[in-house]
Amino acid sequence: MGTTETLEFGHVDRKQIYEYVERRGAVDPKEAREQLGLDPGGFRHHVAILKRDGRLEEADGTLRVALEAGTEEEYVDENLEFHIRPARQEDLTGIVGAIRQVAEEKTYIVAETVADEIDHESALLRHNEIESRMFFVATVDDDVVGWVHLHAPELEKLSHTAELTVGVIEEYRGHGVGSHLLSRGLEWAGANGYEKVYQSVPSSNEEAIDFLERHGWETEAVREDHYKLDDQYADEVMMAVEL
Hints:
alpha+beta
């Protein structure tokens, strides 16, 4: 399912079921039916149609929003084996932990905001009339060690753009994890109709700026003294890449 398409359901109960699942990330079907007050037969029918249309999927006994995001990929760098795959609702805690560890360095303000949002909402992936949000994760032994996140408002004038954050916890840097995450995120963005991806970082985060420049990103603008980090002012560097 491309994130830029208009959501159409054809039945009010079907829309209600989708929105209930989308707001919670992953739900028990019986609990959803009871909370929505729908009869069992009607609920099963509407869920079946939502699955048929690629809106919902069922895994491990839970309903969740279906987003076409590819499969898991394995990489090996020296003695490190890691995997990159679409994130699942169950990854929320690991993603928040990884983002917060990176954010402790006080060099990735936007990512810190993302962690606050998903921790508050308790729904990792979003696709509704207002916004779309997608995550991919890098894992080592099934533990999240890095992420790439894309967020796009469902506004016609901005429907061709998406904001991206990407990061890897310190212990697993230097193995190409960040590069593979970035590539996976941009590949997904291009496949889903986005033409431009952007992000902003403090000028003090020279490592991130160099990383993005090596991958073809360019600086579009600089806002002077936009951040105040440990009583020191830092510019906001706005960077973007055309897909």
